[in-house]
Design brief:
Elements (H helix, E strand, L loop, with lengths): L1 E7 L14 E4 L6 E5 L2 E6 L8 E4 L8 E8 L10 E3 L10 H18 L12 E2 L13 E2 L1
Antiparallel strand pairs: 1-6, 2-5, 2-7, 3-4, 3-6, 8-9
Length: about 140
Amino acid sequence: MFARGTFNADTSLKSKDGILPDSFLAMPAWSKGVLFLNGFNLGWYWPSAGPQMTIYIPGPMLQDGQNELILFEVEASPKEASVTFVETPDFYGPKSKQQQQQQQQHDAMAQEEMHGKVAWSSRKPWKPMQDTLPNSDQQQMVQL
């Protein structure tokens, strides 16, 4: 089933550069399908399986005026076909509220422990490679 809707972005949220902020699309009632925004394929959604419960919406993809959202639902369409734009992602579903809170607390503690530490410290440090390109003034290679 295809579902199509239009909406107007809140232009009062624009940055100094005139760009709308990134957001996330929550669609918990939907099953599984593909999402298109203003003709761009944003990828699959599958909130019934999770863990990603929201879809990332890049701010620059939102237009002034009317925006078009098309969903291609491949399983079961919801009785009330609606979606919600939210500010934060939800990567914790589908879980009970208690499980979500426990996961968020765990993530916050892990982030606090990592504060000031470099997570990738076991990797080789960056170092410039011998430049073998013919136009060395314009390009620099970095070995990871």
